[in-house]
Specification:
Elements lengths: L3 H19 L2 H14 L3 H8 L5 H12 L5 H12 L6 H15 L4 E6 L5 H15 L4 E6 L7 E5 L2 E4 L2 H13 L1
Parallel strand pairs: 1-2
Antiparallel strand pairs: 1-3, 3-4
Helix pairs in contact: 1-6, 2-6, 4-5
Length: 178
């Protein structure tokens, strides 16, 4: 699967810039969240992938479905994405837009990936340390992933810190294979 983030970033930056100018950053954020979730449904997927529909018809159908919930900016984004065959990027655009919005509002979004949910005491220690480093307004989310085998994996914006057993094993394998 192609990494969608690099393809979606220019669209997200453009819509964010336009939303800033129009003073609609929060409304566009909620619209993109809606669209990002909607394209994962079977009905919307069928519309996007329908070979009998032209790009313009696909965009029109999507805009008609969400007409009352979309601003002109979001409708224009759908038109541009359809024209370029990139409607599959809506979810990635939404995620990048949310990051841009948080940066704009001086908030850090931190994802802590652990094997299993830590105890409340451990969670509070991790939260306190991260808030000391990234500010009290940081949004800290815990996510479980058994594949990391132990330790934790931190993602702050575009930066990552891999303190997992899986990451250490990978590093050792890479060193042995030089």
């Amino acid at each position: 699967m192609i990494e969608l983030t690099s393809l979606a970033r220019p669209y997200a930056k453009a819509i964010f810039s336009a939303a800033l100018e129009a003073n609609e950053v929060d409304s566009v954020a909620s619209e993109l969240s809606l669209l990002g979730a909607a394209i994962q449904t079977e009905q919307i997927e069928k519309i996007i992938e329908d070979p009998e529909l032209s790009k313009k018809e696909t965009a029109s159908k999507l805009i008609n479905i969400f007409d009352s919930e979309l601003t002109a900016l979001a409708k224009r984004l759908i038109d541009v994405l359809a024209e370029n065959g990139r409607l599959n990027l809506l979810q990635a655009i939404s995620e990048i837009y949310q990051q841009l919005l948080q940066e704009h509002k001086d908030q850090s979004s931190i994802e802590v990936v652990v094997v299993s949910n830590p105890s409340d005491e451990s969670k509070n220690i991790i939260i306190k340390k991260l808030q000391d480093l990234h500010g009290a307004s940081a949004n800290i989310n815990f996510k479980e992933d058994a594949t990391i085998m132990g330790g934790m994996f931190l993602k702050v914006g575009d930066e990552t810190l891999d303190l997992s057993i899986k990451g250490r094993v990978k590093k050792l394998v890479n060193q042995l294979n030089f």
